TrEMBL record:
UniProt key word Cytoplasm: yes
HAMAP family: P5C_reductase (MF_01925)
Source taxonomy: Eukaryota, Viridiplantae, Chlorophyta, Chloropicophyceae, Chloropicales
Biological process (GO), any one: L-proline biosynthetic process
Pathway: Amino-acid biosynthesis; L-proline biosynthesis; L-proline from L-glutamate 5-semialdehyde: step 1/1
Source species of the chain: Chloropicon primus
EC code(s) of this entry: 1.5.1.2
Source organism, top-level taxon: Eukaryota
Protein name: Pyrroline-5-carboxylate reductase
Keyword NADP: yes
Length: 268
């Protein structure tokens, strides 16, 4: 069984570790971790049963696959806390938004194989959408391993690295757009007389159910929308209000602006 190391043991790393362990793709005894936070180290040691180290270098030296799970602005300094010998021949996965494969390879010895992954926060509840882009040194078996790991916390899809900024703008930032939508739907329910707890539960379940219909039926969202929209009925009245306020354009622009910002961050 593969040995893993988490370089950074925050909430995303915790969610991934829990998924790997629950789906039995990696046992807790094969997971190594280090974080500068003592509280985060305790979570991995006491709650997950993983092996916690006293440095990033020690954690990486004892693994086959290292997962860089630190914020993008700290990634360079963090990577340099690991010796080139410890990085040697490792499969290195980065979930840091905006940090390119070229930048990552500049921080690592030539023998390291690099994969960029863009998961999103629903990883915390096992419903992530993870996009994967691999360097040319990465083997097909490496890619299959990465997919099997991240499939434990949701769906995975392989993309060209050039698409990752758009992935960041859509699925990376997308949960925030959906949370905003759920909050607004709940507000609409309250405005119409529903108690807040009822309105929020109905809004969240409606979004989840609608998303599941798209994924499981394979039908175009527009077709599914038309199935709900009766002539002169309540739904078309609501859809007209959304169109009148430019909701569709607002979502398109949100994804586009977030994509542009991701591109800007990758050049810093």
């Amino acid at each position: 069984m593969v040995r893993l190391a988490f370089v950074g043991a925050g909430q995303m790393a915790e969610a991934l570790a829990k998924g790997f362990i629950a789906k039995k793709v990696v046992t807790s005894s094969k997971i190594n971790a280090y974080d500068i936070s003592e509280a985060r180290r305790r979570v991995f040691a006491e709650e997950l049963g993983c092996k916690v180290h006293d440095s990033n270098d020690s954690a990486v030296a004892n693994c086959d696959v290292a997962i860089l799970a630190v914020k993008p602005q700290y990634l360079g300094a963090t990577a340099r806390t690991v010796s080139p010998e410890s990085w040697d021949n490792k499969l290195v996965l980065s979930i840091a938004a905006g940090v390119t494969i070229e930048t990552l390879k500049g921080l690592l010895p030539p023998s390291a194989r690099v994969v960029r992954i863009m998961p999103n926060t629903p990883c915390l509840v096992g419903e992530s959408a993870s996009a994967i882009a691999a360097s040319e040194e990465v083997t097909p078996s490496d890619v299959e391993l990465v997919k099997s790991l991240f499939a434990t916390v949701g769906m995975t899809i392989s993309v060209e690295e050039s698409f990752l900024d758009a992935v960041t703008g859509l699925s990376g930032s997308g949960p925030a757009y959906v949370f905003l939508m759920i909050e607004a739907l709940s507000d609409g329910g309250v405005r119409s007389g529903l108690p807040r707890p009822v309105a929020t539960k109905l809004a969240a379940q409606t979004v989840m159910g609608a998303a599941k219909m798209v994924l499981e039926t394979g039908r175009h969202p527009g077709e599914l929308k038309d199935m709900v929209t009766s002539p002169a009925g309540t739904t078309i009245a609501g859809v007209h209000a959304l169109e009148d306020h430019g909701t569709r354009a607002a979502f398109i622009d949100a994804v586009y602006k977030a994509t542009l910002r991701s591109k800007e961050l990758s050049k810093l």
